[in-house]
Amino acid sequence: MMPSDLSVSVPPSVFTSSVSNSSAPLSVPLSLSKPALESFDLRKSYGRGKRRFEAVQGVSLSISAGEVLAFLGPNGAGKTTTIKMIAGLVRPDAGWVKIAGADPHRQPRALTGVGAVLEGNRNLYWRLTPMENLEYFGVLRQMRRRLARSRGEKLLAEFGLSDKRNIPVQKLSRGMQQKIAIAVALIHEPSLLLLDEPTLGLDVESGETVKRIVRQVANLGCAILLTTHQLNVAEELSDRVAVIRAGKIVAEKPTQALIQQFSNGAAYHIEYEGVLSEEAAGAIAQLGATVKAQKIHYNPLSQGNAQSDKLASSATLYKILNLLAPLPLLSVRQDRADLTEVFLQLTQTPSPDSHGSDTLHD
Amino acid sequence: MIDLLIGEFKRTWIQTRRYPAEVIGGIVILTSVFYGIFVSSQYMAGPTTNFGNRLDAIVVGYVIWTLVLYIVNDIANNLQLEAQTGTLEQVFLSPFGAPRVFLARAVASLTLRLMLIMIVMVIIMFITGSQLAFPVLLLLPLATLLLSAYGLAFFIGSFALVLKKVQQVLGLFQFVLLFLLLAPTETWVGGAKLAAYMMPIVPSIGLLRDLMARNEGLDWGVWAIALANGLFYFTLGTLVFRWAEGKAKRQGSLGGY
């Protein structure tokens, strides 16, 4: 589960040191700054005539500095096309993209602040070493070579790859290549980071390293658009979730709010100490709960409450708690949906076309 | 831009140095093919024949053919290779813009290629006894030749960007180039000469043969034509490349292969 406090302390690292050296006003409250990325009504079709396929149908996204947006959807839903439209690699049929106020399709300077890992480890020159890749791509992003080298050294240390700095990339493991691809995307301290499946194929330790770095980078003000099929990673890292299905956004909300929304109506579990009187146990059973070995289970949905009828289920819960008084309570908790359940509900229900504009937004 | 150029030099040099077998193989094959042509010609002409400056003209034509072939294939091959390895989209994410990056790459790889060509040329001259002249003025037609060749390279690269598979076209194209570069077009007259002036690279190669094989001076009038020819094909190539970049982005096929 995602930590509720996003202001995690950042250990001394390439990211913290870069901030102290930078003149960028990163101490400005992030929420007040203008969006790092805005896209409006992006549309893209492929093919002609009967073979015409609308890959993206009116996608609008906005990410503020320091925010992580998990962009989720099944295969073929339009995620990659959307990301490539944002990066200026696919030209939209309609709609626009602004990166820090500039259009990447018309103003190449918009790309100065963009870092991207588009298809896993397929972003590197395999005959070059990690250090050589970092230096080259730094220069390609208009950095001075010396600066690219020094930042490359720090990034390799951050990713735990300093000892591999002089080994050609093709001789490294897939996980190491993936980490180098991410380091390359960070070489020029981008203000917008596009990550397509950054933890795919990584072992547990490497996955944790990548997650830690994503958090650190976001904490320093970088806006991150993250696609992944590993929904636990999305839940852990993201501030907000956008779910795309058949080219349309079907839900876009803060991650925890979305999960909470899908958790409404879920069952409550109460644990208590002591002996419950038969009279109280009977009354609790009358309310629709089950009592068993100092544990009470109450599922509002089984009582016919609508999913959104929070008040009714809460009222019943309080009645149960009153009946338990004065016995000591050990715990009261509600089952909570996770992002996987939310995702499956959003993507496996009938097509959004049949619902018209029935989408979940703030 | 200087950093980009140095970065490209370094990248190309490291990639070449790390696989020396490819370079040695290239030298051996290029030299062997020419030696094959030389021995065959000698067999047809008879053992006592002295080729004179015609041999030198053929050496110049062959060396320039290998150079132009490399240049023309370079951008298209790199585009296809990088689409496969996944670095192509990263290149297009550069704020420099793709044409500038590819031009820097072309200059870097050309420099290294010229070194290779020089080695091949020295070996060929040693084997055949050819005696080529290297006046400083040859840099002028060489420059116009490179302009024209890179125009063609961007043109072919555009097809690689949009159509992806251009290997067969490149295969056929090398024979067209062989004809253009080995035929003594500078000795043609009338309409044929005019047509030769309009063909890419051809005016420059005639001048190079005059300078290097025939020990003649530079014909400034023809060089002006060669310059116009080079500028025209270079501009055309880069414009078509920009169009192809837009087309590939509209098709969503930039990183495809």
Question: How is this structure best described in words?
Answer:
The complex is a heterodimer of chains A (362) and B (257). By secondary structure, chain A is an alpha/beta fold. Chain A contains 11 helices and 14 strands. With 257 residues, chain B is mainly α. Chain B has one domain (2-251). In chain B, 80% of the residues lie in helices and 0% in strands. Chain B contains 10 helices and no strands. The longest helix of chain B has 33 residues, at 53-85. At the A-B interface, helix 3 of A face helix 1, helix 4 and helix 10 of B.
- Compute the average pLDDT of chain A: 81
* Class by alpha and beta content of chain A: alpha/beta
| CATH superfamily annotation of the largest domain in chain A | P-loop containing nucleotide triphosphate hydrolases
Spatial order of the strands in the main sheet of chain A?
Answer: 5-6-7-3-8-9-14
Radius of gyration of chain B: 19 Å
Strand content of chain B: under 5%
Biggest beta sheet summary of chain B = none
Q: Mind telling me which CATH architecture of the largest domain in chain A this is? A: 3-Layer(aba) Sandwich
Number of helices of chain B: 10
Shape of chain B: globular
Compute the gyration radius of chain A: what is it?
25 Å
By DSSP (H or I, 4+ residues per run), the number of helices of chain A equals 11
Number of domains of chain A: 2
Task: Characterize the biggest β-sheet of chain A.
Answer: 7 strands, mixed
Protein name (chain A): ABC-2 type transport system ATP-binding protein
Keywords (chain A): ATP-binding, Nucleotide-binding, Transport
Organism (chain A): Phormidesmis priestleyi Ana
Domain ABC transporter (chain A): 37-271
